[in-house]
């Protein structure tokens, strides 16, 4: 038998191993003497305690020992480029230690996903001053602003915060100020305990994409003024527009629409003069249908740039129909209007909705109506 | 004559281990890092020998390098998926060695990913068979390593 693949340079074997979970990569050390050391040179570490039962304390201890040995068996000069941890157990006495090892190994991509329902883990220290980080993804963490001495993330381009809680608003200000090269920012279910001393959030000049959903405080949208893509819940939009600048670079927006804030929607569109793609999710099952009062003006984007509009969870209520009509009627360059009806609508109902929409006058002769 | 010289100076002859000669454009040949320095010194009277690459593997590599220059990103993806799908396991392993030898960077990105998918969560026995690896550990050495990394063997497929 020929060890055919062993003719391959170690670099290629390591490259193959880098696409595996660390657990699988480590298990290849038993294959042969040639393979034995190779997993240690794989630059990414990807771990999960998913297979460890909640109730099996012994297995959980073994898992934690395994992680520590994975981190420590590598040479200190071996870079850990990417570290991914998916963690389901509540209490992890080793998390700080693991993260501190990873932070010392020049980590560029750090992803800590704590898959625990109503529980926030205390964020390990040092992450916000790790100058090598390019991508940071944190899920289910709690940060006391007093524990963060400074934020210095000069290379950070992508920051995702999911289910994240911090003590004071000034943390957000410090965080954003410490990431001068941020291009992609996601904040979903982010909570701020004390709004208190507000301060001003610096604009994120290089930001291209932003997602702000389900945050329990009014997010200062003016900091995002440069984005090209915005994913937003209309609740995040302050009804006071004085502060809000125009998004001159914004070409695509995904919007979750609630409580029929039509006025706010038109006002928002008016602040997006170059918008080309609008995806709007209607709220499900709202009974009160605030009347859509057709605005006297047509926002610049609707008139001149909007080429694709999608409406999701369309129930055909008066306001929704009027809005769809308003778009169809006033856009000059619209190519497609996609309307996704409620999943539960009957086929008769769907036919009726389609008929209503089809009869709307069109501003763009070439626009297509797609009803799903 | 002059015309012929310019035509042949445009293409580069590669001789595989099983004696088949391929004529490829410099753009294609240049993507095989191992022979890049030879191409610089190349003249049309010469043939570059590839002692570790057979005709089938070289033809696949050329097919890939020509095919992936499709116009759109999705067309390239589709082409790559089909390219990998068409290879049998044996061909895949052989090609990976040829690609590693010639250092065709794009295939060196694509192929390991495919191999990784095939070996995900497989037993040691499966992996040894898959890669044709000779176990040079004594039973006691192997047992010791298995013990060191016992956690890694939890929940492995038994085929």
Helix content of chain A: 10-25%
> Which structural class fits the helix and strand makeup of chain B?
mainly alpha
Q: How many domain units of chain A? A: 3
Indicate the multimeric state: heterodimer
First-last Cα distance of chain A: 58 Å
Q: Kindly state the mean pLDDT of chain A as a whole number?
A: 85
Overall radius of gyration of chain B = 20 Å
Percent strand of chain A: 15-25%
Helices of chain A, by number, come to 9
Main-sheet strand order of chain B equals: 2-1-3
Mean pLDDT figure of chain B: 82
Number of helices of chain B: 9
Pfam family, one (chain B): Skp1
InterPro entries (chain B): SKP1 (IPR016897), SKP1-like (IPR001232), SKP1-like_dim_sf (IPR036296), SKP1/BTB/POZ_sf (IPR011333), Skp1_comp_dimer (IPR016072), Skp1_comp_POZ (IPR016073)
Subunit structure (chain B): Part of a SCF (SKP1-cullin-F-box) protein ligase complex.
Protein name (chain B): SKP1-like protein
Overview of the molecule:
- Chain B: Keywords: Kinase, Transferase, Ubl conjugation pathway.
- Chain B: InterPro entries: SKP1, SKP1-like, SKP1-like_dim_sf, SKP1/BTB/POZ_sf, Skp1_comp_dimer, Skp1_comp_POZ.
- The complex is a heterodimer of chains A (372) and B (159).
- Chain A is 24% helix and 23% strand.
- Chain A is an alpha/beta fold and 372 residues long.
- In chain A, strands 1, 2, 3, 4, 5, 6, 7, 8, 9, 10, 11, 12, 13 and 14 form a 14-stranded parallel β-sheet that branches.
- Helix content of chain B is 57%, strand content 8%.
- Chain B has 9 helices and 3 strands; from the N terminus they run H-E-E-H-H-E-H-H-H-H-H-H.
- Chain B has helices at 2-10, 26-29, 36-40, 55-67, 73-85, 89-102, 105-119, 124-131, 139-148; strands at residues 12-16, 21-24, 48-50.
- The longest helix of chain B is centred in the C-terminal third of the chain and has 15 residues, at 105-119.
- Chain B is elongated and about 60 Å long.
- The chains are: A alpha/beta (372), B mainly alpha (159).
- At the A-B interface, helix 1, helix 2 and helix 3 of A face helix 6, helix 7, helix 8 and helix 9 of B.
């Amino acid at each position: 038998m020929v060890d055919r693949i062993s003719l391959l340079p170690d670099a290629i074997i390591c490259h193959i191993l880098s696409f595996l979970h660390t657990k699988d990569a480590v298990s290849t050390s038993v294959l042969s003497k040639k393979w034995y050391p190779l997993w240690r040179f794989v630059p990414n570490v990807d771990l999960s305690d998913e297979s460890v039962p909640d109730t099996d304390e012994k297995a959980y201890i073994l898992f934690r020992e395994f992680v520590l040995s994975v981190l420590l068996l590598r040479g200190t000069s071996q870079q850990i480029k990417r570290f991914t941890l998916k963690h389901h157990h509540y209490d992890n006495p080793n998390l700080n230690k693991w993260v501190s090892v990873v932070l010392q190994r020049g980590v560029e991509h750090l992803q800590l996903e704590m898959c625990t329902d109503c529980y926030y883990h205390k964020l390990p220290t040092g992450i916000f001053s790790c100058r090598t980080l390019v991508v940071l993804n944190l899920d289910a963490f709690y940060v006391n602003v007093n524990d963060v001495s400074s934020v210095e993330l000069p290379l950070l381009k992508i920051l995702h915060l999911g289910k994240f809680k911090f003590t004071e608003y000034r943390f957000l200000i410090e965080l954003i100020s410490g990431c001068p090269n941020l291009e992609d920012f996601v904040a979903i279910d982010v909570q701020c305990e004390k709004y208190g001393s507000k301060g001003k959030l610096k604009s994120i000049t290089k930001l291209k994409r932003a997602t702000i959903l389900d945050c329990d405080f009014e997010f200062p949208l003016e900091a995002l003024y440069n984005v090209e893509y915005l994913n937003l819940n209309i609740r995040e939009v302050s009804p006071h527009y004085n502060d809000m600048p125009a998004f001159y670079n914004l070409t695509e927006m995904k919007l979750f629409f609630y409580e029929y804030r039509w006025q706010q929607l038109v006002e928002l569109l008016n602040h997006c003069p170059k918008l080309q793609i609008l995806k709007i999710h209607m709220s499900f099952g709202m009974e009160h249908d605030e009347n859509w009062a057709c605005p006297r003006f047509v926002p610049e984007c609707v008139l001149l740039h909007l080429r694709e509009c999608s409406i999701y969870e369309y129930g055909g209520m008066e306001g929704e129909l009027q809005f769809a009509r308003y778009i169809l009627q006033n856009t000059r360059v619209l190519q497609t209007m996609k309307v996704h009806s409620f999943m539960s609508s009957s086929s008769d109902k769907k036919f009726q909705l389609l008929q209503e929409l089809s009869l709307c006058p069109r501003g763009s002769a070439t626009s297509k109506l797609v009803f799903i | 004559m002059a015309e012929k010289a310019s035509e042949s100076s445009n293409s580069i002859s590669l001789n595989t281990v099983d004696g088949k000669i391929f004529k490829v454009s410099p753009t294609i040949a240049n993507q095989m890092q191992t022979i890049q320095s030879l191409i610089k010194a190349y003249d049309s009277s010469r043939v570059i020998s590839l002692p570790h690459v057979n005709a089938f593997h070289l033809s696949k590599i050329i097919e890939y390098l020509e095919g992936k220059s499709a116009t759109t990103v999705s067309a390239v993806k589709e082409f790559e998926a089909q390219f990998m799908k068409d290879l049998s396991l044996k061909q895949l392993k052989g090609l990976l060695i040829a690609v590693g030898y010639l250092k065709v960077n794009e295939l060196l990105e694509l192929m390991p990913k495919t191999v990784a998918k095939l070996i995900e969560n497989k037993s040691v026995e499966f992996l040894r068979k898959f890669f044709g690896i000779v176990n040079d550990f004594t039973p006691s050495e192997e047992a010791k390593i298995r013990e060191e990394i016992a956690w890694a063997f939890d929940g492995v497929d038994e085929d």
